[in-house]
Amino acid sequence: xxxxxxxxxxxxPLIRKLESIxxxxxxxQQALMDLPMQMAVIKADxxxxxxxxxxxxxxxxxxxxxxxxxxTGDGKRQIVAYGIAGDMPDxxxxxxxxxxxxxxxxTPCSIGFVRHEDLxxxxxxxxxxxxxxxxxTLVEGAxxxxxxxxxxxxxxxxxxxxxxxxxxVRLRAVGLVDNHSCTLPITQAExxxxxGITTVHANRVLQQMRADDLIELxxxxxxxxxxxxxxxxxxxxxxxxxxxxxxxxx
Amino acid sequence: xxxxxxxxxxxxPLIRKLESIxxxxxxxQQALMDLPMQMAVIKADxxxxxxxxxxxxxxxxxxxxxxxxxxTGDGKRQIVAYGIAGDMPDxxxxxxxxxxxxxxxxTPCSIGFVRHEDLxxxxxxxxxxxxxxxxxTLVEGAxxxxxxxxxxxxxxxxxxxxxxxxxxVRLRAVGLVDNHSCTLPITQAExxxxxGITTVHANRVLQQMRADDLIELxxxxxxxxxxxxxxxxxxxxxxxxxxxxxxxxx
DNA sequence: CGTTTGGTTGAAATGTGTCAAACTTTGTGG
DNA sequence: CCACAAAGTTTGACACATTTCAACCAAACG
Lengths: 250, 250
Prior knowledge:
- Two copies of one chain form a homodimer.
- Chain A has eight helices and ten strands.
- By secondary structure, chain A is α+β, with helices and mostly antiparallel strands.
- The first copy, chain A, folds into two domains: 3-146, Jelly Rolls, CATH 2.60.120; 154-241, Arc Repressor Mutant, subunit A (Orthogonal Bundle), CATH 1.10.10.10.
- In chain A, a hairpin with a 5-residue loop joins strand 4 and strand 5.
- Chains A and B meet through strand 5 and helix 4 of A and strand 5 and helix 4 of B.
C-alpha cells in the first residue's frame, strides 16, 4: 500500500463528514487531503486528552469509539458524549485553551492528530471548511442540550431508549449500521454514566427493554427489531442531530 | 440623545463581551459599530424564537434575562441555559437552519437583532471577530456539558448551589453583581426546570440553603454571605465558563 | 484454568415526586 | 388606594423511582 492511498484512506472519515453537509470543491478536497495529520492507534481505555490539558492539536476519530466525560468533586463520572468515526470531539481546543473535559477510548481507536496551526491555516484559506468545522461544534452543542433534557426530564427507561436511538442514527450516518443492527462496544457501566444512573439500574432497564422486545442486546451486538417503537419509547426526534438525511422510515 | 450615541449604547454589551476575550482593533470596533442591528423591547414571558423556526437573523441580549429550553414529548420542560446581557443565545442559527430549542424572556428584555447576511458579511471581512463568535458558541457548549454533569451526577442541593454560582459568576462578568448581591428574576419553578426537579423540591432545597446561611434570597434579590462556602456546596469550578478573569477570592 | 471484567439478583434505604391545599406577594383595574 | 385576581411560595402526607450494598454468576482472556 503506497503513501497516497494511505493518506486518502485516513482522511476519508473527515471528508465524508464534510461532504454530508455540502459538496466540496476540488480545491477544498485537496486542501483537506494536504492537511498534515499524524496517525496513531490507541488501545482501549486510554485517555486521549484530559481535563486541564492545553492541547496544541485536535484529533479526528478515524475508527473506534470514544467517550467524553467530566467528574464531580467526589469522583462521580458523567459521560457527556460518545465519539464515533468522523467526529472531532476536541475541536473546541482550537479556541479554548484549557480543556474542560476528558476524552477516553472505549475501544481501540485509530486517531488522526492535526496541529492547531495547520488547522488555523486551513480555516483561513478555506472559509467554507472553517464554517463547516464551526457547524460541527454547533451540532455537538445541540446534542449536549438534548442530553440535558434527557437526563433532566426523562425517566431511566426512555432515557436509555433515547441514547440508543441517538447512537443508531449517528452510526448509520457513517455506515456502521446494517439491517438495524450494529456493534455497540459500550458496557452497562458506561451507559449508566451517560444516563446519570447507577450500573445496577442500567442493567434493570436494559432487561426490561429486552423483555419488551424493544432491543436485542448481547455482548457488543445490538439489534433493533422495531425502529419506530424504539423511537417512540425514547421520545426520540433526530432533528437535534442536524443531519441532512434522516433515518428512512421504510 | 442623537443617533450615534444611541448606536454606541446598544452595541456595547456585544463589544464589551468581545473585548473580554481580546483587544479589538479600531477597525474591528468600527465594523461592529456598523453592524446593522434592529432593536426591540420584548415583554416578559414571550418566546423570542421557537423550536422549529428557521430564523433569518440572530439576536444579542442587551439587557434582561432569557432562558433556553426544550420540551419532552409529554410536555415536561428542561431549561438548558440562561441568557444575560451580552449573550447571543441563538448564534447557532447562522449555521443550523432549523432551531432545536425555544428561547423565552424571563423579564422584559432589550434585544438587538442582526440579519444573518450582515453577520456573514462581518465574519468574512473580520476573521478575528468570526473566531470570537465561534469561541462564544464553544463556551456555551462547555456550559451545556457542565449542566449534563450537574443534572446527571449531583443531588438537588449541590445542583442548585452550582447553578447559583454559575449565574453569579456570569452576572459579575458583565457588571451585574454588587457586593456579592444581584437581581435574580428567576422563579422557583424556573429553577426547578433548569435543575430537572419539581417546583416543590426546588422550594425545599432553597429553604434548606437559607437555613444553612448559604444564601439570602428574597423576591428577586440574592445575596451570598460566603462565596467560598457556596462554591464548595455547589462543587463549582468556573474553569468551564472559560472567562479570562475569575471571581476574586478577596 | 484461574483471574478479571462485566452482568445479574434481592432487600432495604432514600431522594425526589405527587397531590392538594393554604399562604403570601405582586400587579392591576375600579 | 383599596380590592381582587393572579402569580409565586410554602406545607404535609404519601407514593415511587432509583440508589445502595452485597453477593453471585457468566463470559472473556492470558
